[in-house]
Amino acid sequence: MSNAQDPSQLYAAHEPIFPRRVTGKFRTLKWWLMGAMLAVYYITPWLRWDRGPQMPDQAVLLDISSRRFFFFMIEIWPNEFYFVAGLLIMAGLGLFLFTSAAGRVWCGYACPQTVWTDLFILVERWVEGDRNARIRLHRQPWNWEKLIKNGIKWGLWLLIGLATGGAWVFYFTDAPTLFWGLLDGTASPVAYITMAVLTFTTFFFGGFAREQICIYACPWPRIQAAMMDEDTITIGYRSWRGEPRGKQSVQTSGDCIDCMACVNVCPMGIDIRDGQQLACITCGLCIDACNGIMDKIGKPHGLVGYLALTDEPLERAGKADKPIWKHILRPRTVVYTVLWAGIGLGLVAALFLRANLDASITPVRNPPFVILSDGAIRNTYDMRLRNKHGTDRWFTVTATAGGDVTLALEGTDALRVLVKANETLVQRLYVTASAGTVAAAAHHLPLRLWITDAEGTETPKAERIYKDTIFNGKEDK
Amino acid sequence: MCAKPIKDDAKAKVGTTGHSWDGIEELNTPLPRWWLWTFYLTILFAIGYTIAYPAWPLIYGATPGVLGSSTRADVDADIQHFDALNAPIKAQLVAADLTAIEGDDALKAYALAAGKSLFATNCAPCHGSGAAGVQGLGYPNLLDNDWLYGGTIDAIYTTITHGVRNTVDPDARNVGIYMPAWSDKASGPLADMATAKLSADQIGQVVHYVLKLSGQTAHEAKATAGAQLFKDNCVACHGEDGKGNRDLGAPNLTDAIWLYGGDEVTLTKTLTEGRGGVMPSWGYASASSTARLTEADIRAVAVYVHSLGGGE
Ligand code: SF4
Ligand code: SF4
Question: What is the pTM for the complete model shown?
Fold first, then answer.
């Protein structure tokens, strides 16, 4: 084993990265995307949506204390959490799809870590100047200039962090109320603590950790390699065109003039000319930088650009690239798309098929049945009735079974109960079969409980759903 | 640093770990500095933690830790906290008329929830977690519509408060009243209660009369003979028609519900040996002992039991 480096040195010092300003197609696209995503993030909690007098009017609200999730006209109850699970699965599959088609597009354009780091670098450049000025400032000993510039930069970063954490908490409670509550100090401590934690993490991740998060902390770079193959369109350097790199004046030189522009703009501090590597987040900035240089020396764009591995032999042989759709349309992307769309359609269907009343039945099986004094057999069920209307409703319960049974509700002589607006009621039901009947001796008699919204005024006909369960008779031994 | 691409000269620069799999070698790339620092910090944290919190096991317990943290004390504090929160509604529960509790949503909700957990802790060992009792042992089923001492909320409350045939509470139900042991071979206090001594044959006749009373198949001749014996000895408690007497806790013999069992074998055993189930007093307090349950708790359990399906 040859260990050229001093083995006693356990770590490598962090080398700060000072990305240079760059302009171009991808940078412009990224500015727009950044603006759009930040706007969505900050504006969403302030959108209003009328749901009736007893319901919150915030369009997007994660109401954790009363366990409701509101999204415009959609309201999700805890028992419908499969919607959230489905959305998360779709998000995962979507990520797989995009990654197998175009590499780490999520990382390069949409990930909050990238968006906020971009914002922080913007502030840094605005306060300290571009790459060379920042390097100079970094190297010079601490003096007033360095102190003041860093102070302003950190102050602005903290403000951005505060705004990030501040917007986050608005998603969990009524935004206007919380806003004034935060100002006059009456908001819950949880809100302040959440904001403090998010302010600090934003400040630290965006200001100092930056590429370290993407390389060491984030699981995605580890997983993404499994999604990509030789047809994935990703960012690469056309070495067959660029090499041997060197001055333009030298006849044998390729197109790369070794100006280091692509390296200097890279937020990850890497050299794309070394080939595909784990640290590249495919942000496209090196393409912009290189294209700018190509313009200056009068060479075509695309020395650094989006390409797939399968294009390399074609290009080397002087042939045209495979068309983009041929890269994208391949079995794995089709499978991801079909799965993604299938789950999406399933969720949409489930969304439209669900009723404004919902129930679930839990048979009480301790004991399985009770013998009454006249020999009748009684089964007990706990029914959870959910009223998703914005008003109180009366629900009527009836039972049909494969034999004669009678239904009774605990605590009332009637067969209907009042369920408060947007609430769940646990109602105990008794189903009784008289002695000597078929039902009383049945093994697992199918039982269907019908729940009707007795005042289904908003719909032409009353809303009615059913739940199936089982009635246990006393089997003759 | 790791973000730097691995160049051809990387091997010469950082060396390898010496591991080689099918010619693939592992570079000995150093960790980032912050990573190493974090690692050292976690070690420091662990040392600090063992000083601050209970950690090192000793023979009888563990080192207490300088912060004096104790999960037991935390639980005690929690219990006190919730007791304080519940104090007002408990006071209301005690002040309310028993029959009015179920009409008051807030009181009922509290009583059902409290009653359920109190039942699970105190009553379930005999009556079962589902309140179905244990028939062979004579622990009554609380779900059906047959009650030895009554199924109104007041009757249930009284039964829970004082219990049945226990030796501590002078107000317990049925003190000194038993199902006697009718057999002429029996002895002891249960036999002393019997107004007559019956032979095994006679007991068999009474058993068949009771089978007939409850609509089960019985030996006609035996049942006819048993009718007179029943009239002479049993009606004092179980009544002329065998429908029982709640003042004496005497079960109804004509229905489908049996405390110990309604088959011939069990009935024979009941008549031969006698029965006398005991339930503790949950509300009795003396100079030297406190009640097992507070008034509010007893009321909560009464409301809960009343809600189980058999309440009258
Ligand atoms: S590596 Fe992780 S944190 Fe970095 S850009 Fe990609 S997804 Fe975001
Ligand atoms: S190599 Fe290019 S695409 Fe990759 S992270 Fe650096 S600048 Fe972005």
Answer: 0.74
